[in-house]
Predict the 3D structure of the following.
Amino acid sequence: MYGVFVVKCWSYVCCLWVLLCGVNVYAQTCRSYGPGVKTGNIANAQLNESSGLAASRLNPGAWWSHNDSGGRPRLYALDEKGTHLGTFTVQGASNFDWEDMAAGPCPNGAHCLYIGGFGDNNYIRPNIMIYRVLEPKVDFQNKTNGTTGQADVFTLTYPDGAHNCETLLIHPKTRDIILVTKEKNNTGIVYMLPGDKAPGKHTLKKVATLNIPGGGTFTGGDISPFGDQVMLRTYNHVFLYAVGSDGIPKDSNRFGTLTPPAVSQGESLAYDIDGINVLLTTENAPMPIYKLPCVNLPPRPEPKSEPAVEPVKETSSEPSSEPVTPDAGSPKEQIAEEPSEKEPVVERGCGCSASSHEDALGWLCLMVLCVFVGVRRKTKY
């Protein structure tokens, strides 16, 4: 009897933990992509040199982009077909060689956009800029023109002299700022600033050096919404890296390579908000947009459950292509199978489908756990 109680108690604890914490432990990014599919051309004549790209978190279906050096400090909203949705001027910023952008969390858990003003072709800048703004709301029915809130400004210095850079990654959980430089010797150097740093002056930390198979320079990239994968592009290739909790790409965890569509000055790419497909843009007319469709989703749990958002703690700061060819030793890919509609909503592993006669001890255990959690929270706060 005691053994049954322990098993039942543990089963219900598992169920309650998943429900209360809202953690989607099965969330993973696509590992294999098919040939690039053209979705349209950028229609906004003011966005004539799309240098950075990010999928909107606040406005699902919208994407953000910006012009390269010489443009105004503006962000442009568009959909994947290139339809213009809105223009927003960034308060407190100047466009001094904006090269990339990324979406990421704000310190208070809201949605922010990060802009990298770090282009330096002549290797003369004593410092570079990262701007962070609260993501604006977009009206899909009527073109939206407006101004963002005041930008947070990070004035950053490399520890070893000036570098040119065109790649900005923002870790979706830690807010770490990760830069991958554009070197002339077929490499890229990875620098990082911890996400808990307040706006102001900081020195970056060198954390890795990447070799580029086949040569070239890194011109853009993104980290997946789950923080488990990084994609970096050159003009001729796109490289995939399986990353750990720090989000740092390394040569040792590069697992795939693909060839993007042949375009002139293709520099930006971004994962969609689900980590399934990838969008690419270019800096030259006619400004085509390409989508790399996922062809091999990782296995999902059965039955499929709705993803939940992991809460973000507040801090003190304010506010035609070829399919992926995995490298030797890459993780084995599997095709996800869709769950049957006849399966119960929750199945084995959690033990939530027990009969009512067997549930009494389990529910009693839940009550005890709730009281325990309440006492801990009261004690903590």
